[in-house]
Every structure is written in C-alpha cells, then in structure tokens.
Design brief:
Blueprint (H helix, E strand, L loop, with lengths): L29 H4 L3 H4 L7 H17 L13 H12 L4 H8 L3 H5 L3 H8 L1 H10 L10 H18 L2 H15 L6 H21 L3 H15 L1 H35 L5 E6 L2 H11 L10 E7 L2 H14 L1 E2 L5 E2 L12 E6 L5 E8 H9 L3 H4 L5 H23 L3 H11 L4 E5 L5 E5 L4 H8 L1 H5 L1 E6 L2 E3 L11 E5 L16 H32 L13 H11 L4 H9 L5 H14 L6 H6 L14 E3 L7 E3 L11 E6 L3 E6 L3 H9 L4 E6 L7 E10 L4 H11 L3 E6 L8 E10 L2 H13 L3 E6 L3
Parallel strand pairs: 2-6, 12-16, 13-15
Antiparallel strand pairs: 1-2, 3-5, 4-5, 5-6, 7-8, 9-10, 9-11, 14-15, 14-16, 17-19, 17-20, 18-19
Length: 755
C-alpha cells in the first residue's frame, strides 16, 4: 500500500474529481495508468503525424494537471487518458482525442482558450471550450448554473457532435469510478446522468453507452434494490440455463438446414430495464418473462426477412409482438426486426434480427460515422436523424433565452419512446408518444404550426389535442389569419412546438403592449396640451432623457411597460411635458381643450382605446362581468397584466377603482367588432326529456353558439338551473337570444349573469 500523500502536495482541482472503480489497481501502479502507453495501442487507426499531435496534447494535459489527484488518490491525468481511450474505441479523429485529453484543462487548471488556439488550433480549442462548464459565481442558484452549463454544452454539441461524444465518455468514466465519492453526491450525479446524459446517448443511438449509464446510475441511486435484483437474475440464470441453451441449439440447427449463415448471440435484459418494467407494469420479478433473448446477425438486408421466416417456422410467433424497424427506423437511426416467439417450453423469447452494419449503428449510433467512414445507408440515416435533432436544439435556443426553460424543452425532446406518423405525401415523421397534430404541424415548419386551425387524421377531422398513433396519416389545415393559441401549451409534447408557441406569444404580447402604451402616452400627453414627439432627431435626445429617468433601455421598452401597466401613463406624460418645456415647447391651447381626445378625429370615441375583439394578451375582457359591445365599459391597467376591460356596473371593477383609481382609463367599442364575444346567461328550467335539446335549438335559431354549459351538482328536482356561456355579437344579439330562450316550453326564467 502506498504512503499517504502529504496535504501540501494533494492540491485538489476546483471541480472535485470522482473516485476509482472497485477492482482497479491501487495508487501504487498509478504511473502506468497515467502514462501515454495506456492509450497508444488504441490509436493504431490514426496516421503517425496525428499520433504525434495527440502525444503533444497528452504532455500539455499532464503538465497542466501536475499535483492534482482524484478523490481515490490517483493522479488526475488518469481520468483524461481513460476518456480519450473511450473516444478511441469509437474511432474518433485526432482533434477529438486531443480535446478529450485536455477537456478539464480550461476549467481546472486556468488554461485560456487563446493558449489552446496558439498551440493546437481553433477546432481543438472550440471542442475544449464546448466541454468547459461556466463559472459558477455568475449564478444565483445551483440549478441555474447547471442549466446554463447544459445549454452551453448542448449548443456546442449542435455545432459539433464530437462535443457530446467526448462528454458522454467523460460521464461514463466518472460513473465507473464513483466509489470514492460521498453517497449524497453519488446519488445526485447518478440522477443527473439518468435524467440527461443517458437519454442523450439514446437519442444519438449510442445504445451500449446508454445501457451502461443506466445500469451505473441505478447502482448508485438505489444500491439495495440493484443488489437484490442482481441476485434474483443470477438465480434465474441458473434455472433457465438449460432452456436458453436448448433454444439456441434448435435455432442454430434450423439456420444450418436452411443454409443461411448467421451469428446467434444470447442477450440478457439489463437490471435497470427489468426494474423499470416491474415498476411501470406493477409486476413481480417472477412475472417478467422476457429477461433473456437472442440477437441474429446476418450479412444482407434480404437475409433479415429470410431469417425471420426460418424462426417463424421453428416457433410460433406471439400475435401483435412483431415490429419492423428496418422499413421504419427509430428516431435515432436504429434498425432491426423484432419478433417474440413462444418456445416449446411455453416461454416467450424475443429475437432481434439485423445486418452487421445495422448492429454497429444500433450499438454506436452517431459514432458509427467514424467507425465506418465509407458509410452505408444505415450509417447515413443515423447521421441524418442525429443532425435533425441537433438542428432542433439550435431552433429552440433561438426562441428561448432562459437556461432553465431551454433545458425543460430539451428534456421533453429526450423521450425515447416515439410514434411514427405519415404526411399526406407519405413522408415519415417521428414524434414523442402523446404528440398531437400541433406537434406534427411545427415539426413540418414553424409557419404551418403558427397558422394551424384544424387537422385530419386518416381523412377524418379530429380535435387539435388528439394524440397521434403510429401509422396515422396526418393532414394540417392552415389559415393565413390564424395564430397560436396559449391553450396549446397544455397539450403539446415536443420541445420545438412548445418553444415556438411561447416565442410567438411573447412577441405578440410585446407588440400589442407597445402599441397600447404609445396610444396611452399620447392620450395622457394631450391632457398636458402637447403632441407626442417623433423618434427621430432632434427629438431623440428628449427620449434619451426620458428613458434614463424611467430606467428603460429604449423608447419602445417604455411604451411596453406603460401598456403592461408597469408604469403610469399620466406620470410619464407629466415628466415628458416638463422635458419638452425645457426644450422650448409650449402647450397648444387647441390640444389642451381637446384634453384626452385622439389625434385621429375620425374615430368615434376620440382618444379612447377601441376594443374590437381582435386584442391579444395585452387587452383582456374580464371574466367576472364578461362585457359585450353595447355595454358601458372601463379599462383597468393592472401592474404587468395589460389592460383588463370591465363593464361600468361591475362590482369587482368598482372595488378596484376605489382602491387604485389612477390605473383606470377610458375605453370604448369599435364600430365594427371582428369577433363574437362570450357572456354568461342563467336559465331556470323544468326537468324533463329533451330540455337541453330545446335550449340548444333556441340558441341556434337566434344564430348564436353555446360555448359552455354548467348544470351544477345539485340533486335532480322538478326544476334545475343552467349556466350557459353564449357567444354573441352585441347586446342586441343577446336580447334576441334571450327572447328565443323565453319562448322554449321548458324555460321558466332567463337572466344575464352579473357579478
């Protein structure tokens, strides 16, 4: 056993390094592990000049990490060498191996990007920079820091996929060597790995890495359950060895008789996938019957289907358990035939049939590009699907500037389960399970999603929140004037759709609030006898002074704040009038007498904000009184909520006015409203057959729509009270609807709902 390292020498890296794996050599043999020789034999696929550059990177990293040790006591350089070794197994290029050796140099050793560019070139420096976490001192919380680090890494990965391959190798080695770390940190790192890194590995088709990360996370998060399950599987392996050997013998003999050359491999479900199945389907271990399976590897694509025929002649297939992932590959490029057969002993056994190249893509995913540089169709497909997802990360980033929101969108897109749907032109799209026609529309193009109004699935009209199923043919109906509905956020499943909808709504709210704020400031300034100055010189200096006083960056930001109620128009107008007076402007008597009248004298309600039903997030009709054209209305400018319109007699509005009178402003109805308006009506009806039909017919005859019916929870009696939400044009239309309702035989009383 080696002597303890003195504290003066044991200078820890800023990021606490994780411990060594159980079973590795103790620190006495560290020199061998820390030498370049541990890596050399894996680099034989590189050119001699490239190996020389990798050796230089090793020397640089070794020097940078000198005096740093891992939590296990090993020299820190053993970790970068192990990460580079994993990357070499994927046959990554020399630049990636160099970046893997130096991936912690910037973060832990104070090396700058400029130094790396000078010594190793910009591509290597960019890879290292993409792998480097951000300075934690910039952030208020650990979660915020973590989210920002993920964002930086994922965006670097979108530009160059080698970043994530090195990062996954880094995480895999850290997970393999967690023994020296405190249990609390071990559980936290394992949870993070299971939530983010394992799904990313799966999304990029690195199934071997995906399975190992899951297994290691499970072992560190729930060691007792993992140990118990491992013992149960070991026991079952002993019981079932004879069965597995007999099935394998029968399968090999059948292929020999069919003169088909294949490789037969027995495979076992991972402990985590068994645990997951037990938990999700509420099964005991004894009820999980597909722990063992077989993989058949053939030479050509046609032989895959021939092999399936041989197997189906040997054992009976289980109905509904056949999947053709060759014709329709998974979202990460995975291709295989899956079939579950019933053996003579009554056990269900799954077989996976694939070619050698499909097998490489299934295990290595997007990394198979480096393994097979020539690249067959399967490798190119994996590359294309990987690139599509990486591009979607950049699209999400363009709309999302908050790191936590970005991470939330990415997590949504990491669902491994997928449904495969078709466009009317037979193009296949992979979407997460639970996806809707809105997700489909945004997957085609942002404009299609933004203007979507209806959808057809297999030729039949469906609701926009309908969940799509594999094999559905989806058609989207668009309208030029349509725009995203905030309610869509309640049911969309893809990160792309969610970020696009949020981005559109934020922009719309800002534009509407800006227009409203400008109109309100002009109105308030007229009460001071002055007209709103323009944005160009010489008025630009005036706006600069005003925005400096208000704390806004620009004139448009000030308008937005006024429109959202964060600033009061009258106070800003008084300040602006004072500044204009300092610049020599004088109140105009005509404007002063007009008071709050608008500059546009053709408008019927001069100087007032006009409501026509087309308003978005910045102007809302209060749900307490539900005003409709013809009602006397007033506007309440809530703090940060935009303009809320109440009826003049609304009791809620009156209470708000008493408490906060300066936030109220004049509003009026436009001459030609563009939409119908909802209002509440209460009915007293006699109970009997066909009451609802009579009510619906009366409303329909008056050319109105019922948007909601509430019958309450009272027990059935002779009479019942119905609460209706009715969509009408104005008060005259409402009066007509109420007359039609009164004529219905079952209706005893009709009244409009008032707060």
């Amino acid at each position: 056993m080696s002597a303890p390292i003195p504290d003066a020498v044991r200078e820890p890296a800023r990021r606490p390094a994780v411990g060594k794996r159980a079973g590795t050599k103790p620190p006495t043999s560290d020199a061998a592990a820390a030498s370049f020789a541990a890596l050399t034999h894996k680099l034989d696929y590189l050119e001699p000049a490239d190996i020389k550059r990798v050796r230089e990177a090793y020397r640089f990293a070794d020097e940078a990490h000198l005096g740093q040790f891992r939590a296990s006591g090993e020299p820190y350089i053993t970790h970068p060498i192990a990460v580079a070794g994993l990357c070499a197994e994927w046959k990554l290029d020399a630049q990636a191996i160099m970046a893997a050796l130096m991936h912690d140099a910037m973060e832990d050793c104070g090396i700058t990007k400029i130094e790396l560019i000078e010594r190793f070139g910009a591509p290597v420096a960019d890879l290292v920079d993409g792998l480097t976490k951000l300075d934690k001192l910039q952030f208020s919380t650990r979660e915020e820091s973590q989210a920002e680090s993920f964002r930086k890494m994922l965006l670097a990965m979108a530009r160059d996929v080698r970043v994530i391959l090195i990062k996954l190798a880094d995480r895999l080695h850290n997970m393999r060597t967690m023994d020296a770390v405190l249990p609390a940190k071990r559980a936290r790192v394992a949870t993070e790995t299971l939530d983010i890194y394992a799904p990313i590995a799966h999304r990029l088709g690195l199934n071997q890495t995906y399975r190992e990360l899951q297994e290691l996370s499970f072992a560190n998060m729930q060691p007792w359950r993992q140990a118990a399950l491992a013992k149960a599987v070991q026991k079952a392996r002993g019981y079932r060895r004879d069965i597995v050997e007999r099935i394998q013998h029968d399968v090999e003999r059948s292929f020999l008789q069919a003169k088909l050359q294949v490789q037969v491999f027995g495979r076992e479900k991972t402990l985590f996938s068994i645990y997951k199945k037990m938990r999700e389907k509420h099964l005991t271990f004894a009820q999980v019957n597909d722990i063992f399976g077989f993989r058949i590897v053939v030479s050509t694509l046609m032989e895959c289907y021939m092999a399936m025929g041989v197997l189906h002649q040997l054992f009976k297939p289980l109905p509904g358990r056949f999947k053709d992932y060759i014709a329709i590959p998974k979202a990460n490029g995975y291709q295989s035939l899956h079939t579950t057969l019933v053996s003579p002993l009554g056990t269900a056994v799954e077989f996976q049939i694939r070619t050698e190249q499909m097998h490489a893509v299934a295990e290595k995913g997007i990394a198979a590009h480096w393994l097979y540089k020539s690249g067959g169709a399967q490798v190119q497909e994996a590359q294309r699907l990987g690139a599509m997802w990486l591009q979607s990360l950049i699209d999400i980033q363009d709309e999302t500037h908050d790191a936590n929101e970005f991470l939330e969108h990415v997590k949504i897109d990491l669902f491994p389960d997928a449904v495969y749907v078709f466009t009317p032109k037979s193009k296949i799209l992979a979407l997460p399970r639970g996806a809707t026609p809105i997700d489909f529309a945004y997957a085609i193009h942002t404009d299609v999603g933004d203007h979507c109004v209806a959808a057809k699935v297999n030729g039949e009209p469906v609701a926009l929140r309908t969940e799509l199923r594999s094999g559905d043919v989806v058609e989207v109906v668009v309208a030029p004037g349509a725009r995203p509905n905030p309610a869509w956020l309640n049911f969309v499943r893809t990160g792309r759709a969610r970020s696009k909808i949020r981005h559109y709504l934020k922009n719309m709210e800002q534009e509407e609030s800006q227009d409203l704020g400008e109109k309100m400031l002009a109105q308030a300034l007229r009460a001071e006898g002055m007209q709103l100055p323009g944005a160009e010189a010489p008025d630009a200096a005036l706006w600069q002074q005003l925005t400096r006083w208000s704390g806004n960056k620009t004139r448009t930001d000030l308008f937005t704040d006024i429109g959202l109620g964060r600033k009061i128009a009258t106070i800003v107008a008084k300040r602006l009038a004072r500044l204009m007076a300092e610049h020599g402007a004088k109140p105009d008597p005509l404007t002063l007498t007009m008071g709050r009248y608008a500059a546009d004298d053709s408008a019927p309600s001069q100087g007032l904000v006009l409501i026509d039903g087309s308003e978005g997030a910045s102007v809302q009709l209060a749900t307490c009184c539900r005003p409709i054209p013809g009602d006397a209305i007033v506007g309440y400018l809530g703090r940060g909520e935009g303009l809320m319109v109440h009826t003049g007699e609304c009791s809620v509005g009156k209470r708000l006015f008493e408490r906060d009178s300066e936030h109220w402003m004049g509003v009026d109805w436009a001459e030609q409203p563009t939409h119908a308006f909802e209002t509440g009506v209460t009915l007293l009806v006699t109970n009997g057959k066909g009451v609802l039909a009579q009510v619906a017919q009366a409303v329909s005859e008056a050319e109105a729509d019922i948007t909601h019916i509430d019958m309450g929870n009272e027990p059935i009696a002779e009479t019942a009270e119905l609460q209706l939400l009715i969509s009408v044009r104005d008060r005259l239309h409402l009066a007509d609807v109420m007359r039609h309702l009164k004529r219905a035989p079952s209706v005893l009383r009709v009244a409009r709902v008032k707060p």
